[in-house]
Amino acid sequence: MSMLPSSGMHLSQCAENNNFEGESFHKFFECWLAEQNQHLEDLIAAESTNQTEEQIQSLINRVVEHYEYYYKTKSRWTNEDVLAMFSPTWRSSLEEAFLWIGGWRPSMAFHLLYSKSGLQFEARLNELIQGLKTCDDLGEISAFQLSQFDELQRRTIREEREITDMMAKHQETVADASMVELSHVASEMIRGNETGDNENRELEDKVESTLVPKEEGLEKILMKGDDLRLRTLHDIVNILTPKQAIHFLIAAAELHLRLHEWGKKKDARKGNQGIGEGKSHNPSS
Questions:
Q1: Stretch 123-141: mean pLDDT
Q2: What are the b/e assignments for 233-258, b being 16+ CB within 10 Å?
């Protein structure tokens, strides 16, 4: 297993070298992905070699801390520009199509868990039939663990629905009385050619003051979504044994990294064909 600096040391330097702007978070995200890829290599090495439980647990803690650092940093940028977090230039169009409240849907973690569990169970089916000793992977989830996951999944879906409902109600406020009145006033000014500096400044001030609670509401909802995402990850890892957690974290990293890679390639092909040129996913931008 390679020796890496802690995610806090490595990524905090990335964050400190940039201002709180959308493109700065883009750079942070690329740094974070690079380290996630390194963590994936470490997880695969731990899965294929004999390591002590302490070594495995130390690696799991480091990987989970890496996710924690992502959400901590994302929270700082969210306070500065919540709208950028809902239309992230650092994600591909493919990834963006599957986002829920600015990130991955928490209940998706259970689908990932059960899919990987089923694949590993099928791969070792002959060994199980013959009564041979198998590895401690996701194909050997116990009945007690399944009951814990079932309860956790139900609770997660319930919270998901509550946040989704909050988002739906907040989206409806874009057509509330204050927005309708403001759009009418602005339209009347345009029709009446009232476009002087004083009028424009006054209108811009009204627009900003009206949009502030809209953005604050989005920020609150995004924070709730991110909190549920991180808690779900923690809870799943805590139910799994250390060796099982290694397999889960490998599957999560592989899916995330490959989906990002496939999406960027699709966007590049569309860009070459003159389609979807309004959204840039160049990591160096």
A1: 74
A2: bebbbebbbbbbbbbbbbbbbeebee
Handedness of CA 234, 235, 241, 245 (dihedral sign): negative
Q: Residue 129's pLDDT band (boundaries 50, 70, 90)?
A: low
- C-alpha–C-alpha distance, residues 225 and 177, integer Å: 28
Confidence at residue 190, expressed as pLDDT on a 0 to 100 scale? 83
Q: Which residues pair with 238 in a beta bridge?
A: none
Calpha distance 65→106 (Å, rounded): 18
The DSSP string of 96-112 is HHT-BTTB--TTHHHHH
| Least confident interval from 126-135, 137-146, 245-254 | 126-135
CB 210 within 8 A of CB 178: yes
Place of tokens 């690329």: 30
The answer for 208, left when phi > 0, alpha when psi is -120 to 50, beta otherwise, is: alpha
To the nearest 10°, the Cα dihedral for 43, 46, 47, 53? -120
